[in-house]
Design goal:
- There is one protein chain.
- By secondary structure, the chain is an alpha/beta fold.
- It has one domain: Rossmann fold.
- The chain is 42% helix and 20% strand.
- Strands 3-2-1-4-5-7-6 form a seven-stranded mixed sheet, with helices on both faces.
- Helix 5 links the parallel strand 2 and strand 3.
- The protein is globular, with a radius of gyration of 18 Å.
Length: 240
């Protein structure tokens, strides 16, 4: 299967919502919902140079602008997604993320890849992390979000996108990061958002469900696993 063709039409067949004209209300809502997962992982210096790989329509870049980051850049292979992000005046360019990193003539303080690494084979994922390491400054950070192979709901999510290739767990992705020289690796859940208020009941119900799943895991195995049960997880690591 030629995934290049799929990525060129990703906004039409995989994420049809990306074909709807963008509105600030949509981007503000997405920023509000993702803020609790990402803001605490970002550099403290608002002048940090940040690269968002596979940025899609730029929802995370919008959050970064909201938080005062001024040196930000996004890259995506889908022309429709890039065009939509540019309508929101976001600094996005169309490029293959591998080719972009190979050709880059600058280094970054933080490189982010949200919902990217699951689209790659294990070898491609390893190659990508190697390229990211080479384009990070000393003390720089990489932040990835991906499907959680330890979640009881991961398979339906994984199978919903024709371009998904690999399932990681926090443990397996930690191992891959450490193989490439990253350290201080930490992983966290992506639970239902606390905001806006209408999502609060979902967030609280999730807290109950995760206790039940943790109990199920302990009964079956006699030990816990990572303690990260959400359908996605976020992992951050440092280049020292």
């Amino acid at each position: 299967m030629d995934k290049t063709l799929l990525y060129q039409q990703y906004d039409k067949f995989i994420h049809p919502s990306w074909s709807v004209p963008p509105e600030h209300s949509e981007y503000r809502m997405r920023a509000l919902q993702s803020s609790s997962c990402f803001v605490g992982l970002l550099p403290g210096d608002r002048n940090s140079r940040i690269l968002d790989l596979g940025c899609g329509v730029g929802h995370l870049l919008y959050l970064l602008k909201q938080k005062g980051f001024v040196d930000i850049r996004g890259v995506d292979a889908c022309p429709g997604a890039v065009a939509r992000a540019r309508q929101m005046l976001l600094p996005v360019e169309r490029a293959d993320i591998f080719e972009f990193l190979k050709a880059a003539d600058q280094t970054f303080d933080c490189i982010i890849a949200v919902d990217v690494i699951e689209h790659l084979t294990k070898q491609q994922a390893s190659d990508l992390l190697g390229l990211i390491w080479s384009r990070l400054r000393r003390e720089g950070t990489v932040i990835c979000q991906t499907i959680n192979g330890e979640s009881p709901w991961c398979q339906s999510y994984y199978a919903s996108d024709l371009t998904h290739e690999t399932l990681f767990t926090p443990r397996s992705l930690r191992s891959l990061l450490e193989i490439h020289g990253f350290s201080e690796v930490s992983a966290s859940e992506v639970p239902p958002p606390l905001a806006p208020l209408r999502h609060l009941s979902r967030h609280l119900a999730w807290k109950v469900l995760r206790i039940l799943y943790a109990s199920w895991s302990f009964v079956e195995t006699g030990v816990g696993i990572s303690g990260i049960y959400s359908r996605n997880f976020v992992i951050r690591a440092h280049r020292l």
